[in-house]
Amino acid sequence: MTRGILIAGNESSLFSAVAGEAVKRVESFATAIVPNRFPLSEGGAVHPSKTEIPTGSIPLSWNPASPISARTLVLAAENRLEHINNAIIICSPPAVFKTIEAITLEEIEILVNDHIKGWFFLVRELILYFRRCGSGSLSLVVPEIIPSGGKGTADLLSGVRKSVDRRSPDKISPADLTGPSASASFHAFAQSVLASTANETFQVMGFITAEAGDESDFAAWIFKITDESTEKNSGRWHRYSKLRFFR
Question: What is the CA radius of gyration of the chain?
Fold first, then answer.
């Protein structure tokens, strides 16, 4: 029986790395990408490099803001793959460097619809699918939320103080306004999902990393844990580190 793999998530280098690992295991797999719809403008969105998907990917359409689209995506993946054994959800949202008063209503709608609501709709459908099947694995992947240039609250506050213009003490350089909000929402949501699925017959796992620029090794590690398919891995977070992966 061919292994069915569905990868859904943000357009990003992490998505590309996970897809690159999938193609090492199966001839074909399904992908659904959340494109970066934030408009490019001065002080606005910073778009990631184009997501590179290897040969073997079966691209499926998905409108994250629609619950019907989430259901259709799962059905389409099942039809194209015959079954879904492993679903990997990747939250790696784009950044928008703006102050709160400068962000547009359109950008707020994009943040909520594409990068918060969509995960709820899709994960719900996947949970229902795996419950009907009685087996499979759902992996929830997110980079660790660490402020740029810092390792915690103290560093964040220090960084804010340094960003204040000495000639204009009330002016602070814009930070990433949307990325941390989306990641924090996904992390909290994933934590609840992990806790509520502890007694299921299928696996639900969380994956997190703070190793920026190490997407390839992180993706390989995700599949290493997923391939083990042991009960002890289910229902908890797996924190990636280079030392843990290579020992």
Answer: 19
